[in-house]
Design goal:
387 residues, 16 strands, 5-stranded antiparallel beta sheet
Length: 387
């Protein structure tokens, strides 16, 4: 197989992610331009000039973003190509041992995942009529690389037809997540949306997006924001760039006065390194050995100013730690007396993330006497894999 074909095979899913991301940004931009054009027709001369100036500013912002993303795309392609040529000796040994077991390797790629840990991808097939369990290949790879390798998705067995099989270095920590949420009384749709997701490369994300106000419009904004967040992580793009892009989207259409608060927790399951990104988000909490610690709130939501919040706190979590994210609807009920929330959490003697989230939601509803705003609680617990 030629060099070009090899790159395309291995990076196709990521490159598609970039393309989808650009397409979605472009659609948002066009929608914003249509709203501006409609307003311009009904405005006086001075207002029309201001709108044209806004249009030029939007064009500059959008063009800059597209250029940044294009550079990221080029960088990714170069990185994956460089990774395919690494450890040729190790590759030959793997191919030889698999051939001895009756398995042909048609293509082979070795690279690093988003967090810098080993990934191996192969196109293989059985040389006879036997079926082979991919876990057997994982055991062989673990022996050769001296790393614990696990199969990732795809085929469970290999037969005579070519099959794509992927393996990655086993993460150190397992994650258990739970949530509880309630919609504001009188509304059918919540303005809050959330993510609790493993991305298969050792990255775990917990996130709450809270659209301004409540109801369907707020829910649409928060859903759109989290959709972009997922696309960035799937494409191995930095979350800082994602936050900047989301901020620009809402800022471009700031005449509509629509903003979104965003609370992100990005966890490396290999090291326990955990980044918290907050844009207009409430305080979060992490619990270690029964002690509750606070991660400060941030008061600048997305779209309020040309530059997003620079809040980024880093913690190194350990097995047994628990993190709690709260939407404004929960936090505001304890704004005057945050010690009541802490005391309530201390009384909730449970290690089950869903039960803990439900208990915190019930505390907030009881304190409010009613569901006066959309409420969302996310709980993430960290445990080390058995050795």
């Amino acid at each position: 197989m030629g060099r070009k074909e090899g790159i395309e095979t291995y990076t196709r899913s990521r490159l598609i992610g970039y393309a989808q991301l650009l397409q979605e940004i472009a659609q948002e931009y066009k929608a914003g331009q249509k709203r501006t054009d409609g307003a311009e027709e009904a405005c006086l001369t001075r207002s029309s000039l201001l709108l044209r100036e806004q249009e030029r500013e939007n064009t500059t912002i959008f063009a800059g973003f597209v250029m940044d993303t294009s550079r990221q795309l080029e960088s990714l392609a170069e990185t994956e190509f460089a990774g395919s040529a690494v450890c040729e000796r190790q590759k030959k040994r793997i191919v030889k041992l698999l051939r001895e077991e009756g398995i042909s390797v048609l293509e082979f790629y070795r690279t690093s995942n988003r967090n810098g840990y080993l990934e191996i991808g192969m196109v293989v097939r059985s040389e006879n009529s036997c079926y082979y369990d991919v876990t057997e290949i994982a055991d062989l790879l673990s022996e050769i690389t001296h790393k614990s390798m696990l199969p990732v998705g795809g085929h469970a067995y290999i037969h005579s037809e070519p099959a794509v099989v992927c393996f990655q270095e086993e993460a150190t920590y397992r994650i258990f997540g739970g949530f509880a949420k309630a919609t504001k009384e009188g509304e059918e749709v919540s303005g809050d949306n959330y993510i609790l997701r493993e991305f298969g490369d050792g990255t775990y994300l917990a996130a709450i997006a809270d659209g301004m106000g409540s109801g369907a419009l707020a829910g649409e904004d928060s859903e759109r924001t989290l959709s972009l967040v997922e696309k960035y992580i799937e494409s191995s793009l930095p979350l800082r760039d994602c936050i900047r892009a989301c901020n620009e989207l809402f800022y471009m259409n700031r005449e509509e006065e629509r903003t979104v608060s965003l609370d992100l927790m990005e966890l490396n399951q290999y090291t326990g390194e955990c980044h918290f990104y907050k844009c207009g988000a409430s305080a979060s909490y992490w619990i270690r050995h029964g002690q509750i610690h606070e991660i400060a709130a941030d008061r600048q939501p997305l779209g309020l100013s040309p530059a997003p919040s620079e809040f980024d706190e880093v913690l190194y979590l350990e097995s047994g730690d628990t993190v709690i994210l709260l939407s404004d609807g929960i936090a505001e009920e304890f704004y005057e007396s945050p010690e009541l929330l802490r005391a309530g959490m201390e009384r909730l003697k449970t290690e089950n993330p869903t039960d803990l989230a439900t208990g915190i939601l019930e505390l907030a509803v009881k304190a409010a006497g009613a569901i006066r705003d959309d409420m969302t609680v996310l709980v993430v617990s960290l445990y080390q894999e058995d050795v």
